[in-house]
Amino acid sequence: MIEYRRPEMKELKGIAKMSAITFGDYPIFHEFSNEFSDMDSFIDLMSEVQHVYLKAYYKNADFFVGEENGQIKSFAVLIRPNSSKVSVFDYFLSGAFKLLRKASLRKLLKLLNILEEGHGPISEIKEQSWVLESLAVDKSCRGQQLGTKMLNDCIIPYISKQSSGTKETFVTFTNTERNKKFYLKNGFTEFNYTPIERKGTTIGNWSFRMTIDPARPAIN
């Protein structure tokens, strides 16, 4: 049985590696990964990038892991409405300078630019919405519906309980057809499609939303 909890800071490095492996083959990263001599080197850097990112967000976002028999099989990062923005200073405090040992500043800025393009369509409603910033399942556990379970058994009920009595807007985005189908299957509605153009290649970039009702108060 999957149990959900907030991960400890010391677990973020392992989660970062899982995230890098999960997202490493996504189209949005192809231009960046092609600059590396092999995929292992790229995944190694992406693991470090993800670790910095997770540490920077750890205090200002809600983190969840899905665990079974002591093994973390899924994780998610959920950003609250009107939450404090993570600054460049936060990234440096979380170890961003160390990334320069493995990649040039030019490469890191290119990666940041790619990620910013993906976020673009949801930026206008981001402040007033819950944002699913990241949802990943260990590659060895794919096909077990763990992403669906985390959404429906953990994240959506959590948002519902956190509501102050009003409906909540929940948004996310992806650039793969597979994930597009996943979000539509799980109750999201597509509200924007703004493809990203990179050196003659078109990358899909879909944005989704759903409305979550507040939890009903318990009856004594």
Automatic annotation (TrEMBL):
Which residue spans traverse the membrane? none
Question: Which InterPro entries is this protein grouped with?
Answer: Acyl_CoA_acyltransferase, GNAT_dom
Q: Which SUPFAM superfamilies match?
A: Acyl-CoA N-acyltransferases (Nat)
Residue ranges of domain N-acetyltransferase in the record? 2-213
Q: Name one GO molecular function term.
A: acyltransferase activity, transferring groups other than amino-acyl groups
Task: Read off the Pfam families from this record.
Answer: Acetyltransf_7
Would you tell me the protein name for this molecule? GNAT family N-acetyltransferase
- The source organism is Salipaludibacillus agaradhaerens (Bacillus agaradhaerens)
Q: What is the lineage of its organism?
A: Bacteria, Bacillati, Bacillota, Bacilli, Bacillales
